[in-house]
Amino acid sequence: MPKRHPSAGKDQKPVIIVGAGLAGLVAAFELSRLRIPVLLLDQENANNVGGQAFWSLGGIFCVDSSYQRRMGIKDSRELAMKDWFNSAQFDREKEDYWPRKWAEAFVNFATDEMEDYVKARGLGFLVNVGWAERGDGRADGHGNTVPRFHLTWGTGPEVVRVFAEPVKKAAKKGTVEFRHRHRVDEIILDELTGRAVGVKGSILEEDNSPRGVKSSRTVVDQFEIHGAAVLVTSGGIGGNVDKVKAAWPVDRLGPKVPQNFVIGVPHHVDGRMIDITESAGANIINRDRMWHYTEGLANWNPIWPGHGIRVLPAPSSLWLDANGKRLPNHLFPGCDTLGTLKYICSTGHDYTWFITDQAIVAREFALSGSEQNPDVTGKSVWGVLTQRVLSKKGTVPVQNFVKHGVDFVVKDNLEDLVEGMNQLVAKIPGGVPLDYQKIKDVVETRDSQFDNPFSKDAQTMLINSARTYWPDKRSRIAPPHKLLDKKKSGPLIAVRMNLLTRKTLGGIETNLKSQVMKADGSVFNGLYAAGEVAGFGGGGVHGYNSLEGTFLGGCIFSGRAAGLGIAEELGYDISKASNVRARL
């Protein structure tokens, strides 16, 4: 364990962490190991410790891991670095200065330390590595060349647990203090030096709502707290549709701002602290870079307002735009999120269609969210085996969406299916009625490519290629088949896919110690930022595109960097705390 610096006093003021999500917990964990006093403030109640990470599927980006090697996957630092920079497409000289450095540092950490670091906390992964964001079809383009999505055994709650438990133990010892229902409204600056020395805010009335449920904003008191440093880890803007629309890059994702979204994060992910930190003098960069999904479902059993669930699809479903036209190559399910979003926006509509069947849905529809994966969240080997490998209907949550979801149409023949789709269209403002004969032509053209084991159709080739990865062949990708062959595949299913808000890729600019930067390029003394509020590092470590597993990973890495950076500034010896610190 790193040693405490002799000059560090026992009566030291606490480090104030604004936001008890994953990045804040990781920073608190690192600080508490050094017995540095920490005060964690959060506007939500104690049920929400861990923030968005709790609701996640728990995927973490690792490079050349023991799990990859066991699966026969040949990954390397060099390959991952190429994939990252080809995907990020950094193109801004000033705003991408620190994001570039963070990207290199993160890939190095994902290669050298991520697996060991989380395992040391008690985290484990499923044995098979997932292949997310398979790419745009170019060797030098966006996407993962190999599978790198390491799914946590226990999903998001387990990721939260392994950091929350030691922090809560430190709280029992008095090193850490949680103050819930404390909403920060202002960062206090020293009048002479300009250093961040504390925070002011509002105490909200008690509200014992369950995790994720929208809580009261009634103010009952005020507070002012001074500390040794201030760390902002408050998350992004995904729960605030108005902010999402205001930041929408019409020049890149035009011709207009989408009007309809389902919401992929709780209401408290409101972006307030980004504005508050900017008002204090922080530099906010890359506001227009966001990560919103194109396969969103309205949750039939919502927890927060507008609650949406993302489908993590494998590549077999036929994807049509609102006009009934097949999406271009290589905009296939699970391949290129931003490219698909750009195309959808170009149609002038906010939704698309999957035409699929029972066999594909059972095997290929994975749902985002820890609560949508009770088998993995509950660490049930039997549940995974019976629901994901052997089931012909899919997991119970998938079956519930097929049965109750407003976006699903299930019919025995294509003509009835299109009629059902048009019944949904009639309820959509500006929706486009679909022509049965045109849809039939598209489906039959797709099906014609399955008469032989070879094909000229790019999606068919992708399906065949993806099944060469044996874990996907066993449990993730359905055997190639015709959609209209219902004897082999069950009833036809159409799914309206909505745009779903999720992540902020830009944010507060930070250096590699998570210190906040000012617009003139100088360090904002005493002020730090980590996690999504800082674009997962630097103000935009992903550039324009994510490779997935990098949001939790980015919170862990940037939260750790913040904890170590603050400790270093306060006079603690961190030389033995991190091999990566020497490289930074």
Automatic annotation (TrEMBL):
<keyword id="KW-0285">Flavoprotein</keyword>
<feature type="domain" description="FAD-dependent oxidoreductase 2 FAD-binding">
    <location>
        <begin position="15"/>
        <end position="552"/>
    </location>
</feature>
<dbReference type="InterPro" id="IPR014614">
    <property type="entry name" value="KsdD_DH"/>
</dbReference>
<dbReference type="InterPro" id="IPR027477">
    <property type="entry name" value="Succ_DH/fumarate_Rdtase_cat_sf"/>
</dbReference>
<dbReference type="Pfam" id="PF00890">
    <property type="entry name" value="FAD_binding_2"/>
</dbReference>
<protein>
    <recommendedName>
        <fullName>FAD-dependent oxidoreductase 2 FAD-binding domain-containing protein</fullName>
    </recommendedName>
</protein>
<keyword id="KW-0560">Oxidoreductase</keyword>
<dbReference type="InterPro" id="IPR036188">
    <property type="entry name" value="FAD/NAD-bd_sf"/>
</dbReference>
<dbReference type="InterPro" id="IPR003953">
    <property type="entry name" value="FAD-dep_OxRdtase_2_FAD-bd"/>
</dbReference>
